[in-house]
Amino acid sequence: MIFTSYDNKEIYVREWTKVSDPVGVIQLAHGMNEYTGRYEKFAAYFNGLGYIVAGDDHRGHGETDEATLGYAEGDMFEDTVKDMAGIAKFYREKYAGLKYVLFGFSYGSFLTQAFVRRYARFLDGAVIAGSSRQNAAAVRAGKALADLGGSVKGKDAPAKLVNKAVFGGYSKKFEDGEWLSTDAENNARYHADPYCEFVCSNGFFSSFFKGLSGLYKKGEGAPADLPVLLISGKDDPVGDMGRGVERLAKYYKGIGVKDVSVHLIEGARHEFLNEAAHREEGLAAIAEFIKRIPVRKK
C-alpha cells in the first residue's frame, strides 16, 4: 500500500494481513541499507500466531525511494519517525482493540528508541533489536564527518568516509569480514540485492547522528508502563558485543521503565533473524514477549 505521510510524501508500506482471527498487529521498522521485503519469514511466523504485520520502506530505502537509495530531501531520521507515527495511527484505528507492538531492527531500532519517546501512546510494547546505547563521542564525530562531506560533496552524495569508518570497523572484528551474520547464504543474498549494500548519503548520516544525539536527553525516554524487549546477537558489533545492549537496558531501567527484558543470543551476529542457527531462538523470544504483554491503558 502507499501511505501519504504528513508532508504528502508517498511511503511504500508492505502488509502481511492474511490472518483469519487476528490477535494483534506488529509494525516493523527495518534496518539501514535494506527494506521490508527481507522480512517475509518474520511476517509468516507471526501471521501463523495471529498477528498482522506491516512496515514501511523508510525514506531513502526500498520502494519508497528506489531511484535515490540512501537519500531523501529533509531530515530523514526525524521525518521517518513521523512517517512511522502516522502509520501507527492508521493501523491502530483500522484494527482497534488489538494488541499493537513496534519491532525495530538496527537503524529501525534507533528509530524505535526515538518513537517511544514521543509516540508511545500508540504502543502496547516495543521490541528493540540489533541495537545499543551508542557512544556520545562517536556520534558527535560521525555527525561532524557527515556534515563535512555534505559541505564538500553535497548532502545527496554517498558518505563513503562515514560508511567506511562505521562498517569497516565492524568488519574488522571478524576473520571472514562478515559482521552482518554467520549465515553465508544470507550474506550472499544481501550482497546481491540491489536494495541493499548501497552507501547512504551525507545527508542521511548527518540526520541519523543528529537523531542519535537526542535519544538520551532529559525528558521522557519511554513511559514507565511500556514493556520493552532488547534482543540482539551476543556477537553483534552494533551492540558492542552485548555491552551496548546492557547500557541501553540500564538507561531504560534508570528512567523508570518497569518491564525491561534483555535477550542476547550466543554466537549470533547482527542479523540473528536471518541466521539459520539462531532464527528460531530469536523468533520464539520475541513471540513470548509479545504474548505476555498486556494491552496498556493509555
From TrEMBL:
<feature type="domain" description="Serine aminopeptidase S33">
    <location>
        <begin position="21"/>
        <end position="276"/>
    </location>
</feature>
<keyword id="KW-0378">Hydrolase</keyword>
<dbReference type="InterPro" id="IPR022742">
    <property type="entry name" value="Hydrolase_4"/>
</dbReference>
<dbReference type="Pfam" id="PF12146">
    <property type="entry name" value="Hydrolase_4"/>
</dbReference>
<protein>
    <submittedName>
        <fullName>Alpha/beta hydrolase</fullName>
    </submittedName>
</protein>
<dbReference type="GO" id="GO:0016787">
    <property type="term" value="F:hydrolase activity"/>
</dbReference>
<dbReference type="InterPro" id="IPR029058">
    <property type="entry name" value="AB_hydrolase_fold"/>
</dbReference>
<dbReference type="InterPro" id="IPR051044">
    <property type="entry name" value="MAG_DAG_Lipase"/>
</dbReference>
